[in-house]
Design goal:
Length: 106
């Protein structure tokens, strides 16, 4: 019974802590740039980067966060990430290190 109560409380707490207004924010990769380069979003929002290049591949790599470089995005492909904590997250393109961007989560 005690375990059931603890599980129920944990379940309710996780549901209550979910953001109710989570949004999906669209960003583009075009002409060797992340557009927009600086995003301000809320906790729980998801950013979707779309590779709009005609022939070039890219990645969206949160290297400073300790992430491994994700698979390359070829033209027409997308990468998405949901941000569940407050902070400033810098990212870059693995194959093109001068391509950089920032997501600020409030």
């Amino acid at each position: 019974m005690k375990n059931t109560c603890i599980l129920l409380i944990a379940l309710i707490a996780s549901i209550v802590s979910l953001p109710l207004n989570a949004e999906v924010i669209e960003a583009e990769i075009i002409k060797f740039e992340f557009v927009p380069q600086y995003l301000v979003i809320n906790v729980g929002d998801t950013v979707v980067w779309s590779n709009k290049e005609k022939r070039q591949y890219h990645s969206v790599w949160f290297e400073e966060a300790g992430d491994r470089e994700p698979d390359y995005l070829f033209p027409g492909e997308t990468y998405q990430r949901t941000f569940n904590q407050v902070g400033t997250f810098n990212y870059r393109c693995g194959p093109h290190p001068k391509m950089m961007g920032t997501v600020h989560v409030q």
